[in-house]
Write a structure and sequence with these properties.
Length: 242
């Protein structure tokens, strides 16, 4: 979209340079500002941070430094996981500046975190449109073990694991009764917060009227989650891989 906008400005300039009105401003006189791209992507190390440098361009080369205010128009990411400066400065004698956005591993989920950045509306300023920053946590994989001791009606049992953004990471529904015990090997990312939810389709938990079922999730021999019995339709347990 920005390439189209710049192209339109170039075409307009042809009319300016070839027109009959000598008082019509050239493209270098237009108060136009734009980001250097539509999308910028980055990964954040576990427990770390990174910086994304977003180029900002104007059509005017000003005699004095000029400041353009920016805003975050929308985000699905945790507020503490990004820091966007309130403005960007174009120094005197140039038409390029840099908006440095800092991204941190704070409550990052397994999905893509997105923030949308735009310029504040100012009279006389032609805005080239917003840009987005997409970032994820660089995943260091670990193996968790989910041991399940079913009640007889194992076909009623299912589970899901959610990340901190509410996205489903892993899930399973069991299709037959009398499964006994099962050990599931799960691949997760280190340094993250998750929630394990067990479901029972009948609504009585892992209880067949004679025996109680149970489950335990372990990482490196450490029990992170355990539950079971008469929990009703569902039971949630938060855990982390830190």
């Amino acid at each position: 979209m920005k390439k189209i906008t710049i192209l339109m400005l170039f075409v307009a300039s042809l009319f300016v340079f070839n027109g009959c009105d000598e008082d019509t401003p050239s493209t270098s006189d237009l108060n136009y500002v734009t980001f250097g791209g539509d999308v910028f992507s980055a990964g954040v190390d576990v427990g770390g941070s990174t910086t994304v440098d977003i180029p900002v361009y104007t059509t005017m080369v000003a005699a004095a430094a000029k400041t353009f205010n920016v805003t975050v128009d929308g985000s699905n990411a945790a507020s503490g996981s990004y820091n966007v400066p309130a403005s960007v400065v174009i120094e005197a004698g140039t038409n390029k500046g840099t908006l440095s956005v800092t991204l941190s591993d704070v409550d990052l989920g397994i999905g893509i975190n997105i923030i949308t950045i735009d310029f504040e509306n100012v009279d006389g300023l032609i805005n080239g449109g917003s840009t987005t920053v997409e970032y994820t946590q660089n995943c260091t994989e670990i193996t968790a073990t989910l041991n399940i001791n079913f009640d007889y009606y194992s076909s009623e049992t299912g589970w899901q694991i959610f990340d901190s953004l509410g996205g489903v990471v892993l899930s399973k529904q069991y299709g037959s009764d009398g499964l006994g015990t099962i050990s599931e090997s799960l691949t997760l990312c280190s340094g993250r917060d998750y929630t394990l939810v067990f479901y029972d389709a009948y609504g009585d938990g892992m209880d067949d009227g004679v025996d109680f079922g149970s489950y335990t999730l372990t990482i490196g021999g450490e029990a992170k989650v355990s539950g079971g019995g008469s929990f009703g339709a569902s039971e949630s347990n938060a855990f982390d891989t830190k």
